[in-house]
Write a structure and sequence with these properties.
Blueprint: E1 5-8, H1 16-26, E2 30-34, H2 47-59, E3 63-68, H3 79-98, E4 103-106, H4 118-136, E5 140-144, H5 150-158, E6 165-169, H6 171-178, H7 182-188, E7 193-198, E8 200-203, H8 209-213, H9 223-232, E9 236-239, H10 248-257, E10 264-266, H11 274-286
Parallel strand pairs: 1-2, 1-10, 2-3, 3-4, 4-5, 5-6, 6-7, 7-10
Antiparallel strand pairs: 8-9
Helix pairs in contact: 3-4, 7-10
Protein name: TIM barrel protein
Organism: Paenibacillus planticolens
Domain Xylose isomerase-like TIM barrel: 20-287
């Protein structure tokens, strides 16, 4: 494969600037950055600050593969919270374009099975608005795989009027939560994949995705809780690349087969030695290049 390799800067746990420098040292081509709070909150970045950050990243020989705009909670299931979340998501999309990337990744909450479910309809309205807005920017609001099977997610995406809402494909989430096959998932979602995460893991027992990713009537999602569950919870484990149940030879071949040319971005949500783990992940990917 000759896809560029990215690193989720936040996985390095060094802060943005030091994380960018470390990503370059580790040999990444690009980076993904959380842009929901703190110094990367769009509200905290003036036009001048955006240009300075973009120029700094370019000076390191890096580019931004995507921003992460995951607002947590119940995703876009709660109609009373959606106006503010949609507005914030639009501002993150604006920031992405200003920084030179077309992709913002997110979790939207678990898509209900029934299309006449009021929660489904609420999520659909939110994603329709965001998809149209993203498309107007020639950008993508990319749903991360995991809470649903690939077939169900495709059905939801197909029902929208635009591909402005697309997919950030994470094979480990599929393996760990739904037990879906990532290889078939790539084929199923081939028209929507605009960014990928490289992560591995195992499923320990069947789980209700609503308990993991948050749903109305269930506790809201937080990345801290997901990382804790991936370390010591009863349902799944995130593991180093090659140690879990993602068949990377077949998975990477599937990405080649659909003509995917985008980023393979390393995300590491667990472990006490993120720099070492990410360096090993880069070496693992490079074996397939």
């Amino acid at each position: 494969m000759n896809n560029p390799i990215g690193i989720m800067v936040d996985s390095l746990r060094l802060g943005v600037r030091d994380g960018l420098k470390k990503a370059k040292e580790l040999g990444a081509d690009g980076v993904q950055i959380y842009a929901v709070s703190g110094e990367m909150d769009p509200a905290n970045l003036t036009a001048g600050a955006r240009k300075e950050l973009k120029d700094y990243i370019a000076s390191l020989g890096l580019e931004i593969s995507a921003l992460c705009g995951d607002l947590g909670g119940h995703g876009f299931q709660d109609a009373s919270a959606n106006a503010a979340k949609i507005e914030k998501s639009k501002r993150i999309l604006d920031l992405a374009v200003d920084l030179g990337t077309k992709v913002v990744t997110t979790h939207i909450g678990v898509v209900p099975e029934q299309t006449n479910d009021p929660i489904y309809e609420t999520m659909h309205r939110a994603c329709e608005e965001l998809g149209v807005y993203a498309k107007s920017l020639d950008a993508y609001f990319a749903i991360e795989t995991g809470p649903e099977t690939a077939a169900h997610l495709k059905g939801f995406l197909d029902s929208l009027s635009t591909n402005g809402v697309s997919v950030n494909f994470d094979p480990a989430n599929m393996v760990m939560v739904t037990g879906d096959d990532p290889v078939q998932g790539v084929i199923t979602l081939k028209d929507y994949i605009v960014h990928t995460h490289v992560k591995d893991g195992v499923r320990l027992r069947q789980a209700d995705p609503r308990e993991i990713y948050g749903s109305l009537g269930y506790k809201p999602m937080s990345h801290e809780q997901i990382a804790e569950a991936a370390t010591s919870g009863p349902y799944y484990r995130e593991l180093a690349l090659g140690e879990g149940h993602v068949d990377f030879a077949r998975y990477f071949q599937a990405l080649r087969d659909i003509g995917y040319k985008g980023y393979l971005t390393i995300e590491r949500e667990v472990g006490e030695q993120p720099e070492k783990d990410i360096a090993s992940a880069i070496a693992f990917i490079q074996k397939y290049q």
